[in-house]
Amino acid sequence: QVQPVESGGGLVQAGGSLRLSCAASGRTFSTYAMGWFRQAPGKEREFVARISWSGNIKYYADSVKGRFTISRDNTKNTVYLQMNSLKPEDTAVYYCATQVGSVPTAPNAYDYWGRGTQVTVSS
């Protein structure tokens, strides 16, 4: 079992940057792909990025491609999301989770969700 805890959110102006961290407990962290999702008020949870267990394969939502970078350090049981050129529409609660299903962009392919970290981008 992998239990993630997200951190690094905050308030930033448009065009700014934030780095989110997802620290996961559990000895099997390095065997799982991990994903970042986000949920804005009144909207469904949406896929942001996903990284394979080795870190070699990464997927991004079109809305963040070229601005966000997902990475991981298996020695620290941590996944990161570097967010640059932030926009007001990036405002949401950001969650990380463990991929247990076959579709890397679908929320229902993930389990062991963290509680999330709030990101607010002001215009």
Characterize the structure shown.
It is a single chain. The protein is an all-beta fold. The chain has no helices and 11 strands. The chain has strands spanning 3-7, 10-13, 18-25, 34-39, 46-51, 58-60, 68-73, 78-83, 92-99, 110-111, 117-122. Strands 2, 4, 5, 6, 9, 10 and 11 form a 7-stranded mixed sheet that branches. It has a 4-stranded antiparallel sheet with strand order 1-3-8-7, with no helix packed on it. The chain is globular. The N and C termini lie far apart (40 Å). The model has no long low-confidence stretch (mean pLDDT 95).
Structural class: mainly beta
Oligomeric category: single chain
C-alpha geometry: globular
Order of helices and strands: EEEEEEEEEEE
Radius of gyration, taken over Cα atoms and rounded to an integer in Å: 13 Å
Biggest sheet, in brief? 7 strands, mixed
The total beta strand count reads 11
Strand content: over 45%
**How confident is the prediction overall: mean pLDDT?**
95
Distance between the termini: 40 Å
How large is the count of helical segments?
Answer: 0
Helix amount? under 10%
Q: Give the uncertain stretches in residue-range form.
A: none
